[in-house]
Amino acid sequence: MNSVVVIGRVGQDPDLKFFESGKSRASFSVAANRWDPKTQAEVTDWFNVDVWDRTAQFVGDYVKKGTLVAIEGRIASSKWKDQTGEERERFLIVANNVRLPGSRKDDGQ
Prior knowledge:
By secondary structure, the protein is mainly beta. 9% of the residues lie in helices and 58% in strands. The chain has one helix spanning 53-62; strands spanning 4-10, 15-18, 24-36, 41-52, 68-81, 87-99. A five-stranded mixed β-barrel has the order 1-3-4-6-5. The protein starts with a strand and ends in a 10-residue tail after the last strand. The mean pLDDT is 92.
């Protein structure tokens, strides 16, 4: 099963785009802290997130840089070759649910 939950703070205001097909997408990053037992320190992991349609519009309306969010979704990857011919891979979370912990605003999914 490909399922992920991340709770963290939004790194920049979401980029909301509307397409001719009628779909919408919001893209943003989330920073989540965790304890690293090797270094005995807290480290920050960054995640790129895409959300679509109704959830994207919710994010566009209520989520800003610094907002605490709970993201539920799946990990997706894409591969391509850059100008030098080197293969690259990008991972991101495709979220189907975005919640605002401690807030009355919620996308309800």
